[in-house]
């Protein structure tokens, strides 16, 4: 089997596992949790693209996740209120629907905003930042500060955003009760499908000419500039795509978990996503997806087993993976293969060693 | 050369899926929600933040709830079965509270859950309990304007804490009030109520300031208060902010005699953190103090300190302890742990608890509570200086107060 065919076969196998085996064997409640992990995996995929491929360490992906999530939640809140004010506005002392909310009464506008608002925010930020050649640690700090500021803004404007409570208690998700098992099942399939489609699209992007340019920008931005390309454009586009993915992830998260709140978007959750990508392996898009699922599964499972000290276990897992496999879990596969190859008596040349894995961080 | 991105993906994705499938065998769909599982024990959920910023407060409530469970088990349990607590960590993160509530209800099939502290965590859990027709016991004073059929509120609502606190200030002739609060739903709602009360009672609100949760820079705010010369401050700050506020308040030359600060989120546990010197003599409004008279409280304090040396007991801890005893009594009376029957049996149920006689009000699922104003003593404990004559009927929507019309 050619590597390409084998790749597709494995993708199909994973698809089968996620779309058929898991729904048949997992209890409804675990399936809903898996759907949550898959939502976060979509956001992680965006980070894999921006950071793993493009070298932009974004520590504020929660902002875009939040913009998407709030866009969706605002529509659901208005729909539930049916012409009245959403419940939290009443108890926050707001008397008239704020102008910012009005467009979100329309589901088409809200769904479009899920992608459009994060993308627009990322384009504006990217255009400002990348053109000024802000990169590396400075870019990371800037995005992190953005996440912190976003949370302060959301918490401070309680009448507009629901404050620390966030937006919750939705009764009608496009005609379905979001807490009903059938809806949660449907949402699981929707999330898994969206993740699969976005993964294929991201992979296509990485393999395209644009993708090669992106990796080149990561590894030698100045050289790319001297060759006549504009790295700022390449980076802005990639950053916008990753923001769009985070927005979609946030929008799916709302019906899956039933809440969007500032505690999901701040510095810590944004960092957790990056950590998950590092654990999974940032140089492969699949690593980002894997990392998000494994780390969040570990979080759930550790905290259920050991409610008092699960954070230590999670920290230990991170340290363990980073010491044993600096390239993440996916890198382990490479390490194991290399080790096997070295043991063989007559070391045949490895035919298709992935180019991207050779690049130093 | 081709980069086989898909291969790592496959290896990658099989692992977690296999892990998840491995737990696929758990909990069939046979048992009904709220039965506490089969077997010789009844499972009950405890869901508080054991990590994160709220852990310092919530762990104490978890401890008092576990004490109540131990006491009940020592007396033979409920309906002849021992209680088996399933403890989960809400991690000071509201979505986690929602997810863990789901887990307790659907996987562990607990008979009931005791949990939550912040209003945000309660709001996040509310839809989960309502949709699954499961029961939550929420043990902390809160901002009212809520009455879910699937939540029992064993802490005070506004007419049992904030309104008596205002009555006390009015009685003392304090006319000009300055409002200070953390920026979240409880202070904002509380202040809305305070403003309505002030308007109807000839008092004047001379300032209203909010700071973010965790804020620690209060010199500007203290200066502003000084300029306005209020008769009293009504303080709804939460957590660490109180430490900074009271320190800077004291260093600006204020004390309880010059300018009383009525607090509604500072109990014995918090006094330790703030430092008694910064806050002694200041009034607080609650429904229970460690010093509350009565045998039930003496026993409670003794039992708690036997397990946790040097610990203090506070209002939310007592409300959590009460919640467990009230639920157990309701289940015993109903003859089952089934939710609808327990709700029915709980209505009107009355128990002698550390704060005195506690009765559940059926329609609102809140409890009758005695309001108590206390003054912080140099030893860190709180001495009661005023109490309502009898337990006050809960009125979460303040329907019986004409001045509150239009608030909800």
Automatic annotation (TrEMBL), chain A:
Q: Which residues cross the membrane?
A: 7-28, 34-52, 59-78, 108-130, 137-156, 186-202, 237-261, 273-294, 306-325
Q: Where in the cell is it found?
A: Cell membrane
Residues making up the signal peptide according to the UniProt record: none
Keyword Thylakoid (UniProt) = no
- Main location class: membrane
State the membrane topology.
Answer: Multi-pass membrane protein
Compositionally skewed regions (Basic and acidic residues) per UniProt: 352-361
Q: Name one GO molecular function term.
A: branched-chain amino acid transmembrane transporter activity
- The source's domain of life comes to Bacteria
Provide the Gene Ontology terms for cellular component: plasma membrane
Q: Tell me the PANTHER family matching this sequence.
A: HIGH-AFFINITY BRANCHED-CHAIN AMINO ACID TRANSPORT SYSTEM PERMEASE (PTHR30482), SLR1201 PROTEIN (PTHR30482:SF4)
Designated name of the protein: Urea ABC transporter permease subunit UrtC
The species is Actinomadura macrotermitis
Recall the taxonomic lineage recorded for the source organism.
Bacteria, Bacillati, Actinomycetota, Actinomycetes, Streptosporangiales
TrEMBL record, chain B:
Tagged with keyword Lyase: no
The organism's place on the tree of life at top rank: Bacteria
Keyword set for this entry?
Answer: Signal
Q: Does the keyword Signal apply?
A: yes
Any one biological process term the GO annotation gives: amino acid transport
Note the Pfam families from the entry. Answer: Peripla_BP_5
Q: Which residues form the signal peptide?
A: 1-24
Q: What is the protein's name according to its record?
A: Aliphatic amidase expression-regulating protein
- Organism whose genome encodes this protein: Actinomadura macrotermitis
Q: What is the lineage of its organism?
A: Bacteria, Bacillati, Actinomycetota, Actinomycetes, Streptosporangiales
Gene name tied to this protein = amiC_1
